[in-house]
Design goal:
By secondary structure, the protein is of the alpha/beta class. The protein is built from 13 helices and 17 strands.
Amino acid sequence: MEEFHHQSTEELYDKYVLGNYARAPLTLVRGEGVHVWDRDGRRYLDFGSGIAVSALGHGHPAWVAAVKEQLFRLTHASNLYRNRNQGRLARNLVGYCGPGKVFFCNSGAEANEALIKLSRLYGNRKAGAEGRCYKVVTAENGFHGRTFGGMSATGQEKIRRGFAPLLPGFSYGRLNDLESFERLIDEDTAAVFLETIQGEGGIHVCTTEFLRGIRDLCDRRGVLLILDEVQCGIGRTGRFFAFEQSGIRPDAIGMAKGLGSGFPIGAVWVDERHADLFTPGSHGTTFGGTPLACAAGLATLHVLEKERLMEHVRNYAPDWHEGLRGAAKAFPDRVLAVRGEGYMVGVQLAADAPGVVAAMRERGLLTVPAGGDVIRFLPPLIVGPEGLSRSVEIFHEALTATRA
Ligand SMILES: Cc1ncc(COP(=O)(O)O)c(C=O)c1O
């Protein structure tokens, strides 16, 4: 095949890559720890983690060693056969989730598809042969991925625009407004499906009171409670799952992103009472749960525990949040709120979040824009006080530099 050395990366993208992203003008070539480098050798503190993925940072030695070892041993075999890594990772996840079983896939959207299918199987069983129990109530402003199921579950018009007709049966309650959910549940409702902390929607946290109320509501109405922990899970908040703070347990959980710390993997956990809804032939994937992906998942969980990263996040997050709030105080008419938990923080600006994101990038800090003029700070879980303070300084400098 011809090599295109004479064409720049920009030209290759312009000419050959579909235009469904408004990308930052940056070409990354290398990562190590909490840093990434562009092709000109400039170093950036990676407070985006590739959208909450690189939990262990870049090139963690234990993760690299585990993936490399498995890469040479066996990378793929399909789900026609067992592989030990998949069994071990499922067991580890059950340890965090509670008694139940796990299905592996490759992304957050795929995890959510499996969860929506679970809700249909549950509804069909509940309603019997002639019933039509298939509805799902999700939250306004949520985000559950770009497949048809994911888009249908996503309570944001801008994500769904242009793709009608979507799946029937989805409706959207207001986050932290229990009554709005109660009103939407009827006898045809199979599930309530929520992000514990809304990510793409701009970092909005479900309150403990709301989660407990929703759990109780679902129990009373015989409806599944499914939590999407794709972005907020796997240690990001300082707990393995963000919902743990509330003391509730959902009936099913979707995971992805941080689970492989950079290797694509998604997973669904289903409570033991509902685990038999999936029977042979009812769902599947060629790539899900390969020995290689599960080696990455096992290494991620191993390092998370061995280096006590959740404790680390719990220890350092409060001062960091304080620092961000302090920087925000200097610009009260521009920074409206600092929200979030652990290493998942959203800064709500009055306007021009993209301008501030760009100004931080120019000063060596990568962050992620979210809905409604919010900037997300999603550092690798390994980042310590030095990197956290530096992010506060750069945030302050960027706000100063973009002052009108
Ligand atoms: C909460 C949530 N669910 C689902 C998804 C979709 O995941 P993926 O992009 O891996 O399909 C995302 C991605 O941002 C997410 O944040």
